[in-house]
Write a structure and sequence with these properties.
alpha+beta; Gyrase A, domain 2; five-stranded antiparallel sheet; 214 residues; eight-stranded mixed sheet; single chain; Alpha-Beta Plaits
């Protein structure tokens, strides 16, 4: 089996930079080992598709276009009335969704190679994102669990608020390097460490340059 090389494999090797105060208030890195799938359906089979997702993922798909839903090892996003994204670190889920959801006449598309998942973590994460995206990121407007489809420097992204000081960005692979460079440029005043996280959210230095997806 061929190894899949991240577009950012050579970008995260310098370890980071000190901020203007000499500190490092951010961790910035790529989350590896995530499978990302897009499910598409239409009104005639919408109920059957939702039931199939519930069986495979262990819970109903979300209805809100602003709030992600955790279903065990899976995180689900309602990106359109008849479209879902499913991010998972379960290697068996993609095939199970293709089998069960496909049987309803709905479509399952694997996007793992088409997206890079970036993580921004730390006390300055919200301040950094305020420089990157045209969104109100205050807790009342964008609480933990919220997501939005937006843009960073003209590149479309999905922004997910994982925790109070942690955000994930799903970026098109073709824009990964330019988005990464723009993010680091805007992070300079805060200081940052560069890391890699696995799908279980264990952070470590960026020593591995390959990505494994189911």
């Amino acid at each position: 089996m061929f190894e899949r090389r991240s577009p950012l494999a050579d970008c995260a090797a310098d370890g980071g930079r000190d901020g203007t105060d000499g500190g490092r208030r951010l961790r910035i890195g790529e989350v590896r080992g995530t499978s990302l799938l897009q499910l598409g359906t239409w009104p005639a089979v919408r109920a059957a598709c939702a039931a199939a997702v519930a069986r495979v993922c262990g819970g109903d798909p979300p209805t809100s276009p602003r709030t992600a839903a955790d279903r065990g090892a899976h995180r689900l996003y309602r990106i359109a009335p008849d479209q879902l994204w499913v991010a998972t670190h379960d290697p068996d889920l993609p095939a199970a969704l293709e089998r069960e959801v496909g049987a309803t006449g709905s479509a399952v598309t694997r996007l793992s190679d088409a997206r890079v998942r970036l993580a921004l973590d730390g006390v300055a994460a919200t301040a950094l994102l305020a420089r990157l995206v045209p969104l109100d990121l205050r807790d009342a407007s964008f609480p933990v669990g919220s997501f939005a489809q937006t843009g960073v420097h003209h590149a479309p992204v999905l922004l997910d608020r994982i925790d109070v000081q942690r955000y994930d960005l799903y970026v098109l692979s073709t824009y990964a390097v330019s988005t990464w460079e723009w993010t680091l440029d805007q992070a300079l005043p805060f200081g940052y460490d560069l890391c890699v996280a696995d799908a279980a959210d264990r952070w470590h230095p960026p020593t591995s340059t390959t990505r494994d997806f189911a």
